[in-house]
Amino acid sequence: xxxxxxxxxxxxAIAHGLSRDAxxxxxxxxxxEFLGLADVVGGVDRGKLANLVxxxxxxxxxxxxxxxxxxxxxxxxxxxxxxxxxxxxxSRPASPKRAKNPGGSK
Length: 106
Description:
alpha+beta, 3-stranded antiparallel beta sheet, 4 helices, elongated
């Protein structure tokens, strides 16, 4: 699911009264039906492509954490460039202290 587009629109619709079930259907099966692809994608049924996202909370909440992603039924990494950069730079050694007046006193 496009966390930046469809999910945000669905979350906005939920905030204005649409049920969560209807919102989920809108971004999955209804979208597939509209594109004429409902026999291939849009639901968890035998014979369809199995692309799934498992979250730690409400999928429509921008603050929820994605735990697992499956593409074509195979697990896929949920690591993002942001996570990799955070880990890279948060574990670097502290900078050495600079001398207050390395060139001598004036």
